[in-house]
UniProtKB/TrEMBL annotation:
Main location: membrane
Keywords, in A-Z order: Ligase, Membrane, Transmembrane, Transmembrane helix
Molecular function per GO: ligase activity
A GO CC term assigned to this protein in UniProt: membrane
Protein name listed in UniProt: O-antigen ligase
The species this protein was found in: Vreelandella subglaciescola
Transmembrane spans: 25-55, 67-86, 120-137, 149-174, 194-216, 228-246, 337-356, 368-390, 396-413
UniProt topology in membrane: Multi-pass membrane protein
């Protein structure tokens, strides 16, 4: 496997800036789930650092892919802001979407002064293991569903995301001098993230695990023999069976509960179960979207529209308490119309395509970064099927800032590859 070194400045000032980036990303990864609002600390440092680029502007040779990724962030926020102005909403409703714009200075900073990857992967492993330990402690204290310092669904989904990031880092770890130690650390991180997700009882995240495995297979599967692939598949199946069978995880109970909820909803006996309520919210959001498909209802009028659905007997009264549809795509369509949904699909789909281009890169480090970025997008598409994550500060911050971190680091490696290719190509003879 080839490996290209980063073309970085050796000046003391630039080394200090890289150290600051490394510290910010490490804090972001390690403290996201184990301290209150831990997901805000690292991004705040990156944002402040990025704003300093207005004074000192490093040379960044941005290409089409870089501009496209920034376009996805800008477009979604612009559509949401335009929709809010159209519906006469207050500025308070724009707090979360505007955080996507705040990630842009952080992106430029990471591009200019990328973190050291050892700190990134170590922070992720510690953060995922910390989430697993915290979840175990909460269950030991009698908490039915581990939730950390946030909603149980958000805690479970973000824990799972940190865990799969650790799996993506296996390619980078394989190239390190202390390969075995790094693989063990990342493996423990993956186990900790998965454990926290299981103990949170957040079923929506588990549905997307086949997609996670598909991304990892695309990144690393071809490099292993058929025997090794079969062994890996057997290990995954054994872990899934163990997670389902052990009563301490609560997986079997949550799966059985979901099956019962669906049966009760279909028969009409009970619609106020966890799954039944989601079905009612999805039905209501779909009706709202069909009534105002172009611009949607807006944040303020969504609840009024849903209350009207209740009065007309279309949905059950129990869902009036919810201010979103527990589905990111339907929620966006109902509130922001077709332009909002298109912008959301662009926000997930375009970065996924850009990262996926590098899943077959000969450099395992580049491949690990591409896998992490692709997994970020795939996971949020999965999470969005059963949860409106962007209605939570944690959901917006996690997606926006991990997106710019992974792309910012990948940018430097792509730039290094271009420089290496230029240096290796024979000089052209001048025309006579």
């Amino acid at each position: 496997m080839t490996h290209v070194a980063l073309p970085l400045s050796d000046s003391a000032a630039d080394q200090r800036r890289r150290w600051l980036t490394s510290a910010a990303v490490f804090v972001f990864a390690a403290l996201t789930l184990v301290v209150p609002s831990g997901y805000s600390l690292g991004p705040a440092i990156l944002l402040l650092a990025g704003c300093s680029l207005a004074v000192r502007r490093p040379r960044l040779a941005l290409d089409t892919a870089d501009w496209r990724l920034m376009l996805a962030l800008v477009t979604y926020t612009a559509v949401v802001v335009a929709g809010a102005l159209w519906h006469g909403q207050g500025m308070s409703t724009l707090d979360r979407p505007l955080r996507l714009w705040l990630a842009l200075p952080a992106l430029l900073w990471v591009m200019a002064y990328p973190p050291r990857l050892g700190g990134v992967w170590a922070g992720l492993a510690l953060g995922a293991m910390g989430a697993g330990g915290f979840a175990l402690w909460q269950r030991g204290q009698g908490v039915a569903r581990a939730d950390g310092y946030m909603h149980a669904i958000q805690f479970g989904n973000i824990s799972l995301l940190l865990g799969v990031f650790c799996l993506a880092g296996a390619g980078w770890a394989w190239q390190q001098p202390h390969r075995r130690a790094w693989l063990w650390l990342l493996g423990l991180g993956a186990a900790g993230g998965l454990l926290a997700s299981l103990l949170s009882g957040s079923r929506g995240g588990w549905v997307g695990l086949p997609l996670v495995l598909w991304v990892l297979y695309r990144a690393y599967g071809k490099g292993f023999s058929p025997k090794a692939r079969l062994l890996a598949l057997m290990m995954v199946a054994a872990l899934a069976l163990a997670a389902y069978s052990l009563p301490q995880t609560g997986v079997k109970h949550r799966v059985a509960q979901a099956v019962d909820d669906i049966a009760l909803y279909v028969s009409g006996e009970k619609v106020t179960t966890s799954v039944g309520s989601r079905f009612e919210m999805w039905q209501g959001a779909t009706h709202l979207a069909l009534e105002k498909p172009l611009m949607g209802w807006g944040e303020r009028d969504y609840s009024a529209g849903m209350a009207d659905m209740v009065e007309r007997g279309i949905v059950h009264p129990s869902i009036k308490q919810f201010d979103h549809a527990h589905n990111q795509f339907l929620d966006t369509l109902a509130k922001q119309g077709i332009p909002g949904l298109a912008a959301l699909l662009l926000l997930f789909g375009l970065p996924l395509r850009l990262f996926s281009r590098h899943l077959k890169d000969p450099d395992l480090t580049v491949r690990s970064l591409a896998a992490a970025g692709a997994l970020l997008c795939v996971a949020h598409i999965d999470f969005g099927l059963t949860q409106a994550g962007f209605n939570h500060n944690s959901g917006v911050m996690i997606y926006a800032f991990w997106l710019v971190i992974w792309w910012g680091i990948l940018y430097r490696y792509r730039r290094a590859q271009r420089c290496a290719a230029t240096a290796a190509s024979p000089a052209r003879s001048p025309r006579p």
